[in-house]
Amino acid sequence: MMITPIHRFRDIERKPEYLQPDKCVPPPSHSSLGTMWFIRDGCGIACAVVTWMLVFYADFVVLLVMLVPSRDYIYSVINGILFNMLAFLALASHFRAMLSDPVSILETCTSLPFQELELGLLMLLGAVPKGNATKEFIESLQLKPGQVVYKCPKCCSIKPDRAHHCSVCKRCIRKMDHHCPWVNNCVGENNQKYFVLFTMYIALISMHALIMVGFHFLYCFEEDWTKCSSFSPPTTVILLILLCFEALLFLIFTSVMFGTQVHSICTDETGIEQLKKEERRWAKKTKWMNMKAVFGHPFSIAWLSPFATPDQGKADPYQYVV
């Protein structure tokens, strides 16, 4: 990988002598491999719990208020299976986005601005580790004259290219798009697929719920309100109106998020990079190549599955231009 000039927006220290490695606390000796990634943030945990509760509420209203009392058995079965399948995929995507390390091991290692790293050091890097800008670590890199390492002054770590520090996760995240409290995690290059799927499936179940609510209101207006639901008419109306507000709100929100994420992937430019108008120093690729870099190679039904880990294949997302 080529060593390239750094633009003015990065909060780095340009020269190794200014890294002040003696002030850095060494990272834990144990590897992060095999450990679960989870951000202990009260606001994020609360938002994640609320997200699951809202999905369960929607499922409750759809099943017990609209589908179970329906006399059309085929209509109830088809819509019940479809809605619950989409809801399951949405929650599975949320689970993966929340508990996935935003930066994968191999990607973090290959993105470091060094030409030579020992294999043992590579295997120790998961997410950008806190406090690895120690004197011993820097000396072990065996930097050649002219090579530069970059340190994040906030988490005292060697900072990869295109990494930004997250004040909630308290470490640097490569290709960080934003920190989303609804998934209690940063959206980075290793979990962006799951976040995109989460927004897509939430938008789909929201639209599906709105359509079913519309049909149910028409059915109740034509029939006796006491026969169109197992609940009393006032309770039925309140439950349906609340579901309408929830579905409409999340349909708009997740549709916008889905669109911005797809645009970010196609342009290969994160939300933070767009906001800061950072200089583009990486090779420009086609939109299709950028999509495959996030969702995996080659194109398959696995793109829609939150259980399939993206396979980078022969993609090289770390090409830089001078």
General description of the model:
The chain is mostly helical. The protein has a domain at 50-102 and 177-321. 47% of the residues lie in helices and 6% in strands. The strands form 3 sheets. The chain has a two-stranded antiparallel sheet. A hairpin with a 4-residue loop joins strand 5 and strand 6. Helix 1 (42-67) packs across helix 7 (233-267) and helix 6 (192-222) packs antiparallel against helix 7. The longest helix is centred in the last third of the chain and has 35 residues, at 233-267. The N and C termini lie close together (11 Å).
Architecture blueprint of SSEs:
Elements: H1 42-67, H2 73-99, H3 105-111, H4 119-123, H5 135-140, E1 151-152, E2 157-158, E3 163-166, E4 171-174, E5 178-180, E6 185-187, H6 192-222, H7 233-267, H8 271-276, H9 287-295
Antiparallel strand pairs: 1-2, 3-4, 5-6
Helix pairs in contact: 1-2, 1-7, 2-6, 6-7, 7-9
Alpha-carbon Rg, integer: 24 Å
Percent strand: 5-15%
Order of helices and strands: HHHHHEEEEEEHHHH
Estimate the helix proportion, in percent. Answer: 40-55%
How many strands, what sense, and barrel or not for the largest sheet?
Answer: 2 strands, antiparallel
Quick structural gist:
This protein has 322 residues and is mostly helical. The chain is built from nine helices and six strands, in the order H-H-H-H-H-E-E-E-E-E-E-H-H-H-H. The strands form three sheets. The protein has a two-stranded antiparallel ribbon with strand order 1-2. Strands 3-4 form a two-stranded antiparallel sheet.
